[in-house]
Amino acid sequence: MKINKELMKGSTVILMMKQLEHRDMYGYEMAKRIEQQSDGLFAFKEGTLYPILHMLEVERLVEAYWGEENGRKRKYYKLTDAGRRTLVEKEREWSLFSTTVSRLIGEGRA
Amino acid sequence: MKINKELMKGSTVILMMKQLEHRDMYGYEMAKRIEQQSDGLFAFKEGTLYPILHMLEVERLVEAYWGEENGRKRKYYKLTDAGRRTLVEKEREWSLFSTTVSRLIGEGRA
DNA sequence: CATCTATACATCGTTTATCTATGTATCGTA
DNA sequence: TACGATACATAGATAAACGATGTATAGATG
Questions:
Q1: N or C, which end of chain B has less CB nearby within 10 Å?
Q2: What angle is formed at CA B105 by the lines to CA B41 and CA A103, rounded to 5 degrees?
Q3: Amino acid A108 CA to nucleotide C24 C1' distance, rounded Å
């Protein structure tokens, strides 16, 4: 089943930030991991991925630094303290939102 | 807590169609009921509400008819058979989407 | 009686998240 | 050597929801 792309809006940022919770990653890696973890359900395009990372950097929620592995330049991202606080808030927001929608949908089944 | 409006995108249509599952309603009524059922969390503006209803009508997922109560004209909406099939599909879609996001967010907590 | 709020419909223009398309460049493989 | 995967980036298109605005009636409040 394919998910309506409009549903994805608003959850993309939290999914990406969550990837950075335990270790630094580069953009392409984050996208591939989300794709794997979701069994191919969520697949971000580059046109979505990189602008979000740049925006998070401008907002000081992540910091970027260049690394090199196997002769390949990679731009690693790291959550800032502000980023971690924002992530916690966004998780609470997601939880409230999803349980509320599920409840409203469930209520109809009376 | 206020919900990021971007999260709402994509779930608005299903919430509105769900209201029509058990009885016909007029637009304003649907919006107010959703607001009450969500404890004020979801509040649709008219600029959101009516264009969606018109779109659903064009797509033959709902049918509209005018009624009058207490000297007040009301436009009632009714789910078509196609609308009911679409609703079932959208419910499955929401379920898959929300459980997947929750799983990915939960996984980070390892 | 005048004014305000809630009800009830509607539409136009704006905002913005994501996508599509395009570009650069390197690595491994067939 | 040609292709696909990796890895970055951005410009323009698309489309959902919003803000603002408009019309009109009912009921409450002063």
A1: C
A2: 35
A3: 53
Are B108 and A21 an interchain contact pair (Cβ–Cβ within 8 Å)?
yes
Task: Please name the residue that has the structure tokens 């930030």.
Answer: A17
| Distance from C-alpha of B110 to C-alpha of B74, rounded to nearest angstrom | 53
One CATH from 1.10.10.10, 1.10.8.60, 3.40.50.970, 3.30.300.130 for A5-107: 1.10.10.10
Instruction: Give the count of alpha carbons within 13 A of B90, CB side only.
Output: 23
The angle at the Cα of A78, spanning A77 to A79, to the nearest 5 degrees, equals 130
* A14: CB within 7 A of chain C nucleic strand: no
SS3 B67: strand
Judge whether residue A57 has pLDDT over 90: yes
What separation, in Å, do the N-terminal and C-terminal C-alpha atoms of chain B show? 27
Q: B9-105 belongs to which CATH class? A: mainly alpha
B37-85 confidence digits (pLDDT tens): 999 899 888 999 999 999 999 999 999 999 988 778 999 999 999 999 9
> Is any atom of nucleic acid chain C found less than 7 Å from the CB of residue A71?
yes
Measured between beta carbons, the chain A residues lying within 8 angstroms of B18 are 104-105, 108
Q: What are phi and psi of A60, to 5 degrees?
A: 60, 30
